[in-house]
Sequence to fold (267 residues):
Amino acid sequence: MRIATWNVNSLKARLAKVEEWIRYARPDVLCMQETKLADAAFPAMAFAALGYETAYHGNGRWNGVAIASRVGIAEARPGFAGEELADIEECRFLSARCGGILVASVYVPNGRSVGSEHYEQKLEWLDRLRRDLAEQCSPDEPIAVCGDFNIAPEDRDVYDPAAFAGATHVTPAERAAFQAFEQWGLTDAFRQVYPDTDRLFSWWDYRAGDFHKHRGMRIDHILVSKPLAGGVTYALIDREARKGLGKGDNPPSDHAPVLVDLDWSVG
DNA sequence: ATGGTAGCGCTGCTA
Fold:
């Protein structure tokens, strides 16, 4: 089972790139974030043509999450348990059962600046996600929580810790929130495959040519539960997909897709 | 260098 996550930064602008990537990476499940599409505009037919069923949760312009699966999609749930769909202003959580695994596509709020109300809301959102998981499932079940966490778990996950002093994504409170998922029973599947390799990034600022200067952060993660953690056979951050198509008029997302291969038989 | 680029959508916000 190959599971991937990719913050596509507008699925409308990126659809050709996503289709191209799906054709060669052939993930069984692809979680997407920042689709920036209302549900009515979601290109479900494009995914169907590639053999994927989709579930999506967006209201346009900002945010928006989706899951594409070629091993089935059932029990799609947009938003946290108990949330009224009509009350959701920012579409950041979608879960579904795919090939026997409970998969969640999450887009954690950015936080903007430390101490701002947006930062506090980021921490609250992370706590709500943790509570939602604890109430809805158990780490003894097969679970994969995938997405843009907007957290670099350790200093070695950023290009220069000094450059992020006082900034979001690296604060003790954000990292504690990330560790709370691990304490509950989830494992950072990518880090498990690369326990000793530093400076592996999944996001680079568009500005100042950061990608080509290797100035990035690892903030996109695939967290897997106990039945899956022991069988992670491969992991990759596909930097090729962060590059353009070769035409100046077709820029890539600012994130690269992250994928992991799991020992898991679709029932 | 408190800069820089991208998306949405048409003004400035979000990242």
